[in-house]
User: What shape does this take?
Amino acid sequence: MNASAPLTRKDFQTDQEVRWCPGCGDYAILAAVQSVFPELGVPREKFAVVSGIGCSSRFPYYMNTFGFHTIHGRAPAVATGLKLARPELEVWVATGDGDSLSIGGNHTIHMLRRNVGLKVLLFNNKIYGLTKGQYSPTSEIGKKAKSTPFGSVDRPFSPLALALGAGATFIARSVDVIQPHLKTTLKRVASHKGTAFTEILQNCNIFNDGAWEEIADKDQREDNVLFLEHGKPLIFGKTKNQGIRSNGFDIEVVTLEEGGITAADLLVHDERQPSPAYAFMLASMDSRPGFPTPVGVLRAIDHASYEELVNDQVQQVITAKGKGDLNKLLRGAETWEVR
Amino acid sequence: MQVTGSQFTNTAALFGNDLSTFPDFPAEIRAPQGTLPGVSGFQVNFSSTEVHTPGDAVDVLIAMNPAALKTNVGDLKTGGILIVNSDSFGEVDFKKAKITSNPLEDGSLSGFRVFQVDLLKLTKAAVKDTGLDAKSVDRSKNFFALGMCYWLFGRSMEGSLRWIDSKFKGQVAEANKLTLRAGYAYCEATEAYQAVAYEVAPARLPPGTYRNLSGNTALSMGLIAGAERSGLPLFLGSYPITPASDILHELSMYKSFGVVTFQAEDEIAAVTSAIGAAYGGHLATTTTSGPGMALKMEAIGLAIAVELPLVVVDIQRGGPSTGLPTKTEQADLFQAIFGRNSEAPLPVLAPATPGDCFWVALEACRIAVKYMTPVIVLSDGYLANGAEPWRVPTVDELPSFPAKFRTDPAGFQPFMRDPGTLARPWAVPGTAGLEHRIGGIEKQDITGNINYEPENHDRMVRLRAAKVAGVVQDIPDVVPAGDPEGDVVIVGWGSTYGSITAALHALRAKGHKVGHVHLRHLNPMPKNVGEVLKRYKKVLVPEINLGQLAFILRGTYLVDAISFSKVEGKPFKQSEIENKVLEVMK
Assistant: This one.
C-alpha cells in the first residue's frame, strides 16, 4: 500500500469470505463503515475493531484494520484496556443486543459511566441469531422464539435509555437500510470524544425478519421515523405535518395546521441539552403507541474521556514526584545492613 | 492488634532478627470486640538464628480479653508467659467469650506465668492530661502492650515513635506516644518483669542490605520490576477481593512508575481489560483470589487462544465459594492448571516465602513476555500477609528481558512462530502494515484466519501445548535441600516451604536421611523432578489441600507420592511434618 495515497473503501476490506446469511442487515452496516473509515483522515493502522460474540461480532474479521474478536459480552472491557494502553488509537466496538445488553450489560454500563473513548456500534435485531433464534433483551413482549414457544413474558428495555441512565455523553440511532443516514451518523460517532453509543436497527432475515419493518419499509418509513436535526423542530410524517409538542412534563403528537398549531409550537431538537431528561424522552419515545422512532444523534455533550483522565493523573504524579526509581522502591523506607 | 504486631515485627527486623509472622484476623471488618469471632491475632517468631515458620507454640501470649485467651491459650508453651488485660475480665466479657468461670481464678492457667495488667486503667492514667475521649483511649491501649513488649525483649521504641508521628496527628499522636512509653516504663518499674525479660540477639543472615517485607508488597514490587526489566508500561486490571486487594492498593500508589491501575466493575472486566492492554503492548496483569479466578477463567482461555502475555495472580484463600476469606489454603492448584474449558495449558508458578513473591512475580513477567502466554502465580493468604527479612537486590542484579514488538510488515503473519520458543510475534495496534485479526475462534496455523479444519485444530492444540511445555528449557533443575538421596523426600510448593524447611533441619539433626524438593515452577515442572524423586524410598507431599500436587506427581511421574493434607485455614506446624515423616519412614 502506498502510504501517501488516500485510503479507499477497498483498503478496509479483507480477503476473508463474509459468513453472514445472505440478506442480513450486517452487510449494509459493514459497507457503510468501510466507506466512512477512509473519509476520517485516520491512518489505517490506527483503527482497532473489538467485538464480543454473536453474528455482529464477526465484524472485525471483515475489516482490514487491527481487530480483536473476544468473548461473549466482554468487548467493552477489552476495548477499555486497549484504549487506556493506546489512547491514540481509534477503537470501535461491534456488538449486538444479546452481547452488550444481556451477558455484557455490566461492562456496557460501566464503559458509559466512565466515558471511555470508544465508538460503539450496537446491532439491534431484537433476537439471538448465532445461537439460532432465542428472544433477546430487546425483543417485544410476547415474542415467540425457540426458547419462548408460548411468547416471552419479560419486558424489553431500550438500549439508548439504558445508556442515558448510565451517564452516556453521546447516543445515536440509525438504520441498516438507510445508508446515507447511517454514514452521516457514523461520522458523528467518529468525532465524539468519550463513549459514542450507537444503536443500529438491523434486520435478521432468518430469525426475526421484519424486525423493523415499519422503519425499514420505504412506504411506511416517513410516518414512523423522526429524523433528528440539531436546532430543527421535531417534525415527521409523509407530508411533514406531524410534530412533537411538550405538554406539562410529557409530550404529545400534534398535527400541524390543525387548530392553529405551527412549527413554532413544537419542541426544537437540542442534542446538547445538559439535562438527560429530554434525550430520555426521545430514547423511550418509540415504545409509545402513536409516536415515531427518533433517529440521528439524540445527545452529544462534552466531557473528558476516561483514558485522558487516567493518563493525565499518571503524568501529574510523575511531574510532582519525578519518575519512579526502582532501586529506591526496592529498598523501601527502612533497611539494615548485615555484614 | 494487626498494627501492634506489624510495629513489633518492623522493630525486630531493624534490630537484625530473622523472623516470620502469621497475622490471623476475621473476615468481618469490626466484628464485636471481646467475642470469639472478633478475635484478631498476630503471631511473630523472631530469633538470633534462622527462622522458617511463625512457630508451632508461643513463648509469650498477650490476651486483651477472655475471648482472645480462650482462642489462643492452647498454643502457649507450658511455663510460658501470659500477659492478660485484667480490665477486660468481668462477667460481661466472660459472657461474650462464652465461658462460665473466670480463668484467672479457676486454676486453668496454673501451668503458665500469668501477669495481670489493668491495661485500660493504666492507659487512662497515662493520657489523662491530653483530654482524649474514652473511645480513643480504648484504642490507645494496644500501644501500652506494645511498650511492654519492647521492654521485655530489650527493643528500642524509636521506630514506633516515628511511625506514630507519621500516622497520627495532634492529641491522638501524643496519647499513643505517651501510652507506648508508659507500657515500657511500667515493666521497667515492676519487679516481677525483671525475671522474665528476654535477650534475642541479631541473627546471622548472609551479608547484604535487608528490609522487612510482606508477600503482597513483594509481589507488587516484582510486577513493577517486571515492567521495568521488560521495558513495558505496567497495567493492572483488578477487582477488590480479600486477600489480594493490597496489591491493587500498592500498585495504585506507584503511578510515578507509569503504572496504570484499573479498578474494574467485576473480575471478568479486570482480566479482559488486562488482555486489551496486553494487546496494546503493555505488561498486563490481573490480581485476585480463588472465587475471582473462577470468574476469570473463560478470559484466560481467550488469552491462551490469542497468545498474548498476561500475569494472573491468585492469592489463594479457603474455599469453596466464599469459604474462609482471610485464611490461607493451597487448593487452587487444580484450578490453575486444569480449570479451563478444553486443552488450555499455561505456565503456573508459586512463591515459597513472602520475599520470594518478588522473584516469582518477576519470573512470571519474564515467561509471559518471552513465550507470549498468560502465566498464573499462586500465592496464598499466609504469604500475602506474612513478613520476613528480605535481602534487597539492586536493579542490576535483576534479570533483563526486553520485549520485542514486531514492526516489519515483510513476511508478517500473526501466528508465525519463533522456532525456539514457539512464541508468536507481538504486533501492537498502531503499527503500519501489520493490520491483522485475532480472536477466540480456532485459527489457521500461521495466518490466524478462522479455520475449522480437523487437522488444523489438532495441530494448533498441540502447538499451544508444546509452547507451554517448552518453558522447561528455560527453568532451573530442582536441587533438593538436605540429603540428595535417602529415605524420604518431602515435596512441597508455595507457603509450606517454611514448615518443611524447619522440619527438614530438625530431622537431619537427628540423623535421618531426608531431602526436600520445593517446586516454584508447577507447570511445566523442572525436567529432573521425576528422576530426583526416584532417588528416595518415599515421597511425601504436605499440602493445605486434599492432595492436589500429590495427584499430579503420581499422574506425571508414576511415583507412589504419599499425600499429607491439612485444610484448617492455617499453615502446617513444623512438628506435624516432622511426625509425618517419621511415620512414613517406619
Summary: Residues 173 and 199 of chain A are 5 Å apart (CA to CA). The radius of gyration of chain A is 23 Å. The mean pLDDT of chain A is 96.
